[in-house]
Queue: 3 jobs
Job 1
Amino acid sequence: MEDKRPENVGILAMEVYFPSSYVDQNKLEDFDGVSKGKYTKGLGQEEMGFCHDNEDINSLCLTVVARLMEKNHVDYKDIGRLEVGTETIIDKSKSVKSVLMQLFDESGNFDVEGVDTSNACYGGTSALFNAVAWVESSAWDGRYALVVCGDIAVYASGNARCTGGAGSIAMLIGPSAPLVIEPGLRASYMRHAYDFYKPDLTSEYPVVDGKLSVQSYITALDNCYQNYCRKASKKIKTKSSTFNLSNIDYMLFHSPYCKLVQKSVARIVLNDYVHQEHQHYSKDDQTQLKDLCQFKDASLDNSIFNKPLETAFVKASECLFERKTKPSLLLARQVGNMYTPSLYSCLASLLISTSLNELTGKRIGLFSYGSGLAASMFSLRVTEHAGLPEVVNPAKVNDLPTFTLHSLVSGLLEIRVKLKQRTQLEPERFTAILECREKTHTLANYSPQSTNEHIFPGTYHLTHVDEKFRRTYERKPLPHPDMNGNSSQNGAENFTHTNGF
Amino acid sequence: MEDKRPENVGILAMEVYFPSSYVDQNKLEDFDGVSKGKYTKGLGQEEMGFCHDNEDINSLCLTVVARLMEKNHVDYKDIGRLEVGTETIIDKSKSVKSVLMQLFDESGNFDVEGVDTSNACYGGTSALFNAVAWVESSAWDGRYALVVCGDIAVYASGNARCTGGAGSIAMLIGPSAPLVIEPGLRASYMRHAYDFYKPDLTSEYPVVDGKLSVQSYITALDNCYQNYCRKASKKIKTKSSTFNLSNIDYMLFHSPYCKLVQKSVARIVLNDYVHQEHQHYSKDDQTQLKDLCQFKDASLDNSIFNKPLETAFVKASECLFERKTKPSLLLARQVGNMYTPSLYSCLASLLISTSLNELTGKRIGLFSYGSGLAASMFSLRVTEHAGLPEVVNPAKVNDLPTFTLHSLVSGLLEIRVKLKQRTQLEPERFTAILECREKTHTLANYSPQSTNEHIFPGTYHLTHVDEKFRRTYERKPLPHPDMNGNSSQNGAENFTHTNGF
């Protein structure tokens, strides 16, 4: 037993948190005085979530962990590893993970490995890989791992501001998972680049070289995809002898803005086209690509900024995009770029936009990108037997929590409800709030100006930063549970006390 | 094969870098006008290394990785994972790991997992655990992992300044290692504490609550040690039915200053004493403890600041300290606190202070502590067969590098030479250099004022920070190798070209 790895390690449960305030991208176009459609059609964004000055990276992660544990009835004693991926650094030394350990106080369980992991939007993926490896390693002691990603993405006023967002996602990791990380199938691309980085430690805003950023993302995508396909061709039996997009049922991407994701699907089709792999696509999908013959001698080199080629491939791959990727962009479009949680928000969006029967047995490809740069492509397999509630082993129902695809997806269904429950604020108010964050986010001896009026029940919020920069938080109470102890549709949850510290 | 883990995963090779400038702690006592012996006897420190303004966390890590690869003749293509543990944050988003990827450019290998991991001085241990788990996981592809820890530890002028230091350590990780991480034997203690943290992002200096810091360290030690012994009692056959200090041949600690380490040995003896485990010590060791009968009813509660008890246990455990721990404090005493590399500097110091025959087959206990807080106790086993060069498989000698205890320790022997080659600077000069760092460490459009006159050959140094905060580095050339292509005793190395970017 000791030298054998547990099997089917992956995601057992997920929880998503996004801010309760948002701004409309249409109104932001007017407010910013840019050409109509620049943010909405040009970038593919509809709405953008943002935080007031009473939320920070700690409060975001406290909220999502507390909700995941409550909703899935997991005991804090049963967690053996917890790590956080973030680039929202408010302390150069203390980890967000150490702040989250407050949630474990009551359980008395402090034997919980893992700290913070960081490289721009890639930190969450790094944490996920580490957690999976821990479960597969000799250090595993049978307990669950928790992976948390969270970020507040804000930009200086100007062109990039509309590509902000915020949120946090927690994932419970263990064996026999409904979403299995496919073993030995992973391709990374890591290089030195100053495309997007945060060297001004006094500011929440990054320094961005927009053109280099797109170039880095696409180059990483090309490299990861080709390397992933090479590895997958050896590992996975396919109808053709090689692996290509036809072997991936859903393809998810880190999404700084939705239009880049659509271009990424086109780019993958270009990769297949250049390598003659599109010949293995289904008849229908091949038919869509018939107008590409003018590019039969296309190469990947120097094609990143070739507009006619890009346009042609985006058009030709539209059906593939609609089927394999678009359902994953719900949160990316309505909340914006969450940074580390972005890719996992795409996973959550896909899961609540697709029926369980459709999902079961499928392969989900994921491309994670963090500027600087760090990128990986990997895949999830939706396990055959975890799709339907009736296959739950009845002997275990009253024992430990059982994690099926059904339970995983059920836990995410309130996303659509909560998106509608958010408060829309005008661009003027949004701008004022960002100005307030700008002036106050590094202050000691400070109490947030915002009340907790707008935030969702169950949300942790910052109450004070003392003269030594020590931060305290409180939690907005959840409504009382209904008679059955179940969550109600309006976001009320079965958790009754305020956990304040 | 696929679901079976590789065996004896651990440290194959190590490389240590520390600054070439240091200040004498005796002179610092005079300069600071404190009572004689406060830093030297009171804290147990002799000298302190420090960096000029032309070294930063990137340059420290570039140097140690380049040297490890050269000295051990490892090809950059053979690295599949690289991660960095640090709390010296100079960018909130871009990882140090991404900077290190420049070293891989020539090899064309960019499929290298891992980013940065951070929680005060614990980041390196987190990176080590992640690397070992990766090798043991299904994601492993047969290549080596590289773990890098580095930090520049500086404090505001005053009481704490003398507890600074700087350095970096790289470790090559893989199976069949001379230093095996004992599988399934690990106890962690993670909690929320504001004992030492860095909330002022504009400053290199931490905020420190000295008393809480000692209390947190000792509480973490108590918890990790007891939990480790509980786990070890189940896993390891010992003469007595339980596990205690007599089952650990060498005991290493994170060392903010050497006196705390000596007190930690005493604290472990107190733990054993309270639980009656000292009865399993050797006759000689038991005899040393005979004066402790006045504390026969001692408990761990409220004893952290009990001075008479502490003094008695420090005295009674002196022989144990001399034998099991003191040989590990060479670098901690002469370079100071390196933060993340501190614990691994203790390992390197032990290895070059003890004969290979003595080391072989022994268990080395390690206690890693990072404020905030994150702590773990784990152990290394020096493998029976890797101790002597004659057991190297001759068939492999001309093939891949072979890593034995002999080769590992040989690579570290220049530490003593380099400690002597350093330049001693007067406290006035040291203070001026820290003031210069204070004013310049966050600047854009800046070139360091220091020349590379003092730094060791083979060291990377910062040459410029441009107007967009982008940093460039150059490497001080190594002397030409001697006729045999070997490193010479004076620090000359078999690497001839200047690698500048």
Job 2
Amino acid sequence: MTKEEVQGATEEEQQAQSKKALKKQQKEAEKAAKKAEKQAKMASEQQSAEEDDFAKDRYGVSAMVQSQQKLGKQCFLVLRQQQFNVQALVAVGDRASKQMVKFAANITKESIVDVEAIVRKVEQKIESCSQQDVELHVERIFVISQAEPRLPLQLEDAVRPDGEGEEEGRATVNQDTRLDNRVIDLRTTTSQAVFRLQSGVCQLFRDTLTKKGFVEIQTPKIISAASEGGANVFTVSYFKTSAFLAQSPQLYKQMCICADFDKVFCVGPVFRAEDSNTHRHLTEFVGLDIEMAFNYHYHEVIDSITDTMVQIFKGLRDNFQTEIQTVNKQFPSEPFKFLEPTLRLEYTEAVAMLREAGVEMGDEDDLSTPNEKLLGRLVKEKYDTDFYVLDKYPLAVRPFYTMPDPSNPKYSNSYDMFMRGEEILSGAQRVHDAQLLTERAIHHQIDLEKIKAYIDSFRYGAPPHGGGGIGLERVCMLYLGLHNVRQTSMFPRDPKRLTP
Amino acid sequence: MTKEEVQGATEEEQQAQSKKALKKQQKEAEKAAKKAEKQAKMASEQQSAEEDDFAKDRYGVSAMVQSQQKLGKQCFLVLRQQQFNVQALVAVGDRASKQMVKFAANITKESIVDVEAIVRKVEQKIESCSQQDVELHVERIFVISQAEPRLPLQLEDAVRPDGEGEEEGRATVNQDTRLDNRVIDLRTTTSQAVFRLQSGVCQLFRDTLTKKGFVEIQTPKIISAASEGGANVFTVSYFKTSAFLAQSPQLYKQMCICADFDKVFCVGPVFRAEDSNTHRHLTEFVGLDIEMAFNYHYHEVIDSITDTMVQIFKGLRDNFQTEIQTVNKQFPSEPFKFLEPTLRLEYTEAVAMLREAGVEMGDEDDLSTPNEKLLGRLVKEKYDTDFYVLDKYPLAVRPFYTMPDPSNPKYSNSYDMFMRGEEILSGAQRVHDAQLLTERAIHHQIDLEKIKAYIDSFRYGAPPHGGGGIGLERVCMLYLGLHNVRQTSMFPRDPKRLTP
């Protein structure tokens, strides 16, 4: 447990405390007592020659403060473990001396302590703690790791809602300070909740797909050629030559489909050397990628992906309410809404809705970010959902490997998916015919020599297939109604940030 | 399904065939018949002006061969889907014409076909197929994707056991040919089994740890500084500066422990710019990484990791017998043996065993690869296990952040784990005290400026912790008794290979 402040442990701890209390802790207590005794002895002797341990001054409990300074008869501490905290009381009595109270009061914030205590119900709710109905009456307390007295940021500032900080003139912590001191910022209840939920998204994604018969694959990140002509790609020195970092696992997913894996997914980093300094761009993020063969229509792919997303949303709603509410305390947002089955709109319908709202745009123009957001609001008003699919994008705005729409050559069998008006997935039916792929590449003026291996993958039997890639950090950000993707990346990378 | 050869579908297919036969397939059949009719019409008209589909010559079924050449009354095909294959018969009768038999016989190998057929029991087992008791009597057959007639390698050669090839003078396929044509090589029953089992290893790893309360984390792969001085690290151009590819997620795992995540794991690529051209080195591989805080002794960490490995071994044994036996057909090996609890030997015991076997080595010398293998054989003889832990490595052969053994400064709280005599994991208790860490870094002559951020992570409260990293490809290779890590990497990267 981490000492949070001087003035009051989790459900788990409480259970652990009461269950183990008699057996294990007596043993521990004896051990600890012996250790403390030894430590005190060593401190007084300066050097214990009989103990050949060069590291003895660097671990174990701190020696107790022995001075006789007068102090109060009790002190309160707040002990924190992950998302939870609890008030603890050290009071002079049978089990604690004045010196012990003083020692406890002097433990630096964020130090890690082992505590043995009795859990007692309290009369009045402790509003400042997550465990409001109990407090710990401390009988033993040992410092396991002492924090330096001066912290780069205060945790209570780091969890304060922005509005509250401004109104009451209290400090909040800006994003760069947070990210520069991420080890401490990640200790906030908000960060703990965000990244536990993120772990849940990955698990729900994989479990859903595994149940659907998908196979997990591992694709290489160092690649020999940039498949789409080399823009926005990081270069790596590779022995005597150079290579690139994969912008997506797409080629490899497709090769797996051509290799008869039928349905595959992968979870891994993707790299974009794009000099975009926005709230939603990272140079390295985690891709949740899907690719599958289908029988008759690429809508089979859309249905698989949307159902996977719906399973994720349901799993989060049903199993991560603690985390969602913890985040909402600092960053309030509306609960995330979704429909079953998922709403699917065609691009032409979206353009019509936008025009009706006063936007001027051509049939084959791509959606700008503000227009995507506006469309999200219009869709929410009309259909009451925060999640939908936009299908049949204009062929001109999609990559060369996108299958054209057989009934209208201006459009394509491609789609984006949106959460709260922001894109989280881009996908399509891929061209699985080498000849058509060659023609499409020529049309896009792509050097055929550079994509020969890609095209050749489709020469030895390739089933019709499609897929898409989901940005993990965006899904978490938008599900939680946060406003910056750096909040949902543990150690974000952008054009200006490479550390920690 | 893929057509494998001319002369003879999976359990799933059979079930599907019989279940859907009446309803769905009638519909499909009608659809397909209409499609085929249309196609034939289009082929004769050359250009159907009323259909505005520029891609019409590139998808759909091939037009039937219409010539009247004489042919046999039946032909056998082998149809393959993933790990399974089945014999199919096209015979002249009510449902098939002579032309149709000829068409079927002329379908190029590895083409993808849709087949409608009756499943019939056969009198005599079909030894050459995985589905030995049935064959398919084909009523409709459509080519979905036609393979080029000349294949870069033959699948029957690619699954032939090495010995058999040599003895009978039949072709086998060498590794570079396989890897150069990986899309086809991955279609072999052996490859399908290997990578389905690999998917299982990842799933078992995560599920076991999730049950133990571990949180999955995502760590950055682009990093600003090479933590151990910059050897064997790939350099990346990063906008106007340069960066490195992470050799392991260790620093980030440790930061998460310091950030109070208690127990974390991650699965992701790790990069080693090591010019090692051996059977077990890759420049990019998948790390299964664990890090956890502990209470009293780093053996808590060892126990968590070994139990995770045991759960993986059990899961593979219980749920992946088909895959294991498929691989064994081509690459025979002894079943993998393990003990519960896992055998843990101390380094000094290992040195004693090796010396007894005639090896000359000093107490603090590291183990060479041949000595590791020899030790594996000695341990197998003595303890009958293919999996064990070697604990308490000499401090001198371990990285600077390794916690020294408190009772003997020549040794350390560190360990490796071995499968069939080869290392699959390296791990340790880490130094969690900034001062001791600084001293150890100075001892190793590491530039303190370069690791300042790392050391500072431990200044604000850091619990005792340890962990380790497992190489996914090695685990799969050694579990299956394979002899080259490239067999268990879908798209392997080594100093000489960057493609496909």
Job 3
Amino acid sequence: MEFTLNQIAAILQGKVEGDGDQIVNRLDKIQDGQPGGISFLANEKYEQFIYETGSTAVIVSDKFKPSKPISCSLIRVKNAYTGFTQLLEAYAQLTKTSKVGIEQPSYFDTSSTQGDGAYRAAFSYVGKNCTIGKEVKIYPHVSIGDNVKIGDHTIIHAGVKICNSTIIGSYCEIHPGAVIGSDGFGFAPQEDGSYKTIPQIGNVIIEDHVSIGANTTIDCATMGSTLIKKGAKIDNLVQIAHNVVVGEHTVIASQTGISGSSEIGNHCVIAGQAGIVGHIKIADRTTIGAKTGISRNVTTPGKTLFGLIAFDIKDFLKSYSIFKNLPQLQDRIKELEKKQ
Amino acid sequence: MEFTLNQIAAILQGKVEGDGDQIVNRLDKIQDGQPGGISFLANEKYEQFIYETGSTAVIVSDKFKPSKPISCSLIRVKNAYTGFTQLLEAYAQLTKTSKVGIEQPSYFDTSSTQGDGAYRAAFSYVGKNCTIGKEVKIYPHVSIGDNVKIGDHTIIHAGVKICNSTIIGSYCEIHPGAVIGSDGFGFAPQEDGSYKTIPQIGNVIIEDHVSIGANTTIDCATMGSTLIKKGAKIDNLVQIAHNVVVGEHTVIASQTGISGSSEIGNHCVIAGQAGIVGHIKIADRTTIGAKTGISRNVTTPGKTLFGLIAFDIKDFLKSYSIFKNLPQLQDRIKELEKKQ
Amino acid sequence: MEFTLNQIAAILQGKVEGDGDQIVNRLDKIQDGQPGGISFLANEKYEQFIYETGSTAVIVSDKFKPSKPISCSLIRVKNAYTGFTQLLEAYAQLTKTSKVGIEQPSYFDTSSTQGDGAYRAAFSYVGKNCTIGKEVKIYPHVSIGDNVKIGDHTIIHAGVKICNSTIIGSYCEIHPGAVIGSDGFGFAPQEDGSYKTIPQIGNVIIEDHVSIGANTTIDCATMGSTLIKKGAKIDNLVQIAHNVVVGEHTVIASQTGISGSSEIGNHCVIAGQAGIVGHIKIADRTTIGAKTGISRNVTTPGKTLFGLIAFDIKDFLKSYSIFKNLPQLQDRIKELEKKQ
């Protein structure tokens, strides 16, 4: 997509300094700017770059006074950072939601329905009795099973697999390769040491405004529902086991795993590669550090936990700093023993 | 699928108390029961819920005597839990194996064969010289390379990729997005500091009754075979490297990684996010804790190991409880030093 | 593919001892050799196997003198190991690059171009304005977005998803299910405790001779590019976040995660399940142990680091060996306290 500087200034209610007919088709970092790109300068620390940038234009504040000659054009706005994020959002919106129509071949069972503004890519698959809302975008190689419901304005990226009976809200985004509703990992040990599969007949419910990362897996419930509450943001390669509940506006970073039937509160922040055992509850506003293992209930809201078997992060760091010096500590004990 | 209570009672050899023509189409937890669902009551602790449940019917024991009025219908059977699991299995069976036939467009090389009772979804792909057994279900976007063999009654879920020369047994289930037979991670360092790819020409053999989780990856052997023995159950997002052997009826939880050429014994249980280095052997019936790292052979069967560099779990927990109190321990040493 | 021993001897510039018209169609380990296979003997330790192997033929050195009768044929070459790897490479090359042509149905936007020697499998998808080089192989269920560039001789395996504006070099190999260019995990906290999606408008650049493992995820940059430099080798299920830079000829093992904007130097080796926080730099030739967490800049090249919060591996191992004996250490302190 190409825009003239005049068009962009109109969108941002700003003023062009330079040739308003110049065309840009890309947003650049100011330090990496190249012709055809537009950048912004909001932080004084980056001022030097505006004198060197190759960008065609830079968005700056009303009040910006250059201290040296500038070779690029300027678009002056009230707040350069806000202006730029407006542009970012407009750009992302255009890119993601501009797709409309049904590409062929695609598979859509006649018992299913999809609302207006649909995009269904070639090689997308929708099974029986599905109800898909308005403005839903379904990318290539998406597989949607039977009896699935998807709300309005949700984007399902390439290669996502959504299993039978999953319910997904509105304004969600499911990133490429994610698997929603695969069987929970449930096996009953038999007397001969083998395992029998426990049928997994529940589903997954994902509420509105949820983001699910690339190649993340969310298992269906054994019975009932695995539940991802509204506004939760889940990164790539995360494992959510059967019957887990993830609270509202909780953020879970990459490669974290949550075991079966655990309930994570609202507004929690879980860093990367953390692990949470099954059948526990984590209070609201808990922060869990990277690589941290949580092995029991967290009942007090607002704590920050860290460690292989987690405890309070400040206490952990004190213990860990002594751990690093254990050889010296041991030497001091030897010394004491000698002097007895 | 819809059933009357009379039909269900006939399946379970039980008796209906209430209107046997009522229809149910769903299995519910008793505490979450809604009209149209059927639940069970096996554990006395849950008795209160039978007086409140919205379920249309509840499966109870012959001997159950309500202490209050009940508004739902009952199906009385010998053992309520057994009855319910029978129902669960029948339900899961119906859902998973009811698919039959070939949807179009699908790709099936003319040199390959598939037995009776086949389901091949639209957009499934089967390469050259494959031999696929009876009652095998192949879901959408499954990619099967050349020279692959698959036994009877195996289910290959959506988006699974099975690379050339893989052999999969009977009654296996491969969950969505799993990759079977990708190249092992083998690179020979060159004098200039670059790496040369070591060709990976082996395959993967998966024996009968194996379950492979969603988005799990199993690499082919450099030469020979990566081997998953019968009855092994592998969860989501697990990494099995080239030439690994996973023993019979061994269970591996999510996000665990097993490095090249290691051999895991039979009846082992490996918790989530564990890691096992390459070229070692783990004895039968070993239990490995969550987030545990195994860096050397485990020769005695039946041990339970834990820790970043694992040792006996009881010893680990003793050390870790002192680790938590290292600041106090350090204070005691300071105290002793002062008093000298 | 079948070859006579005479054909193989010709390729390797060696001599056959035995029937040169015998046919082999497989490379076997000498200890597992079966008729129809060819093996090699390079290491004296394996000599015993040549007297027992079922292989049709074994590649041996010019100088090899059997100490017992041998039932298989021999191909004598200067260096048996080199000869065998030549054969391995030829075999792998044939298997992987023999695919040519366009299978149907496949989707290829008319605005995109692909060079000579193309393979595009059934159900492959290529969006708008893509430029794809010569001898590029695109397997089933590969999804390529808009404005993607791919160099010559690159192999894109089954089910790979390549998002808009990704640039991939020549001689790369992207293994099944990998996701390249998914949105970075960026959300701005709002006053009401919810999160707003930060548009991710950058891309991913992958230079020449890079290998990306199965189901690995590489996020696009928020702005600018996530960059994987030439010769880097990345294993399965690795997470590379937005704006990360991975240096030349750096090797990253399975299930490692690298957080946003971190820069990994050249010739680094990162073991499995390691984690690196965001916004740090790792010097060239750093070795990072398995399960290790890196929480700050590594400025000195060539170090080896280990631990949950990493430090020098030798120091870590000293501390850890004392950690294992903390109960005894505590007893010694008690003993000292008693004796005061």
